[in-house]
TrEMBL record:
This is GMP synthase [glutamine-hydrolyzing]. The chain holds residues 199 to 523 of 523 of the full protein. One of its GO terms (cellular component) is cytosol. One of its GO terms (molecular function) is GMP synthase activity. The keyword Oxidoreductase does not apply. Keywords: ATP-binding, Glutamine amidotransferase, GMP biosynthesis, Ligase, Nucleotide-binding, Purine biosynthesis.
Length: 325
């Protein structure tokens, strides 16, 4: 019968048989899939695995540190931490078009990753956290030429240009199975059950031109929102973070007038977005309690100098999308 410990033993044996004594590189994003793949492959082959974590400067507050703590410190995984935020910001300067921003971020990501991967001259394998729905989706995209509203971050061309064999140990698993596997491998529950985060990160949550000062403001506002969602509990012990499928703050590069103490402020606006959905193709805006929204708004305006107005997005998908870009 199927049990998680048996599954892990089998998966470990398969990875060892496939890889032998060769070395493996994995692009760690901090997301669930690449994290679980890293933990599983590390369980199988230990130091034959090197992870490359590219920080594009568009991650959430303290995310880079969290990834390094979890993998390098706690699990003892070899992780190369590449701080490429200046490169990404440079490439994005002046660009306001959402699709062009995605292309820039995707291309720069491939470039930085390749540069790092080429330094690991012993590597023969590229590991990816591809899961079963990704396999289905890309098969569909090839035959149907799917109509894409937003181009997704895609690192599909990497193995060929790097001349590496592809290792995808999660290819047969659904998302909930990947999460169970992650917990069984010792990853923290909160990490494994996180909301999805887009590949281009805050790059598509800062409307228009991406700037470091905007990203810094947004990170702090977003962290307050998520912290307050996590700090709630209903009768069943569930938080509003658990009850929403995705929640985040969006930076609007628009200034409005406010008043603080005796003075007038003229600062930026943050929009809060929280949705409930089962497939992310359609979504309802989450009916968060007014008291919670009020608390988040007060905290953001009081604690994040530079933001003086907070609004809540009450648009469904369709016609709106979940992200604002
Ligand atoms: P939308 O905004 O299209 O989002 O309703 C649906 C889901 O897809 C995520 N999303 C992305 N994920 N790269 C990603 O990896 C992207 O460019 C991208 N754009 C949207 C979004 O966060 C939501 O979960």
């Amino acid at each position: 019968s199927w049990t998680m410990p048996n599954y892990i033993d089998d998966a470990v044996a398969r990875i060892r048989a496939e890889v032998g004594d060769e070395e493996v590189i994995l692009g760690l994003s901090g997301g669930v899939d690449s994290s679980v793949a890293a933990a599983l492959i590390h369980r199988a082959i230990g130091d034959q695995l090197t992870c490359v974590f590219v920080d594009h400067g568009l991650l959430r507050l303290n995310e880079g540190q969290m990834v390094m703590d979890m993998f390098a410190k706690n699990l003892g995984v070899k992780v190369v931490h590449v701080d490429a935020s200046a490169d990404f910001m440079g490439q994005l300067a002046g660009e306001t078009d959402p699709e062009k921003k995605r292309k820039i971020i995707g291309a720069e990501f491939v470039e930085v990753f390749q540069r790092e991967a080429k330094k690991l001259t012993n590597a023969r394998w590229l590991a990816q956290g591809t899961i079963y729905p990704d396999v289905i989706e890309s098969a569909g995209a090839k035959t149907k030429k799917a109509h894409t509203i937003k181009s997704h971050h895609n690192v599909g061309g990497l193995p060929e240009t790097l001349n590496l064999k592809l290792l995808e140990p999660l290819r047969e698993l659904f998302k909930d199975e990947v999460r169970e596997l992650g917990v069984a491998l010792g990853l923290p529950h909160d990490m494994v059950y996180r909301h999805p985060f887009p590949g281009p990160g805050l790059g598509v949550r800062i409307l228009g031109e991406v700037r470091k000062d905007f990203a810094d403001l947004l990170r702090r506002a977003d962290a307050i929102f998520i912290e307050e969602l996590r700090n709630t509990r209903d009768e069943d012990g569930l938080s509003w973070y658990d009850k929403t499928s995705q929640a985040f703050a969006v930076f609007l590069p628009v200034k409005s007038v406010g008043v603080m103490g005796d003075g007038r402020t003229y600062d930026y606006v943050v929009a809060l977005r929280a949705v409930v959905t089962s497939d992310f193709m359609t979504a309802h805006w989450a009916e968060l309690p007014y008291s919670l929204l009020g608390k988040v708004s007060n905290r953001i305006i009081n604690e994040v100098r530079g933001i003086n107005r907070v609004v809540y997005d009450v648009s469904g998908k369709p016609p709106a999308t979940i992200e604002w870009e």
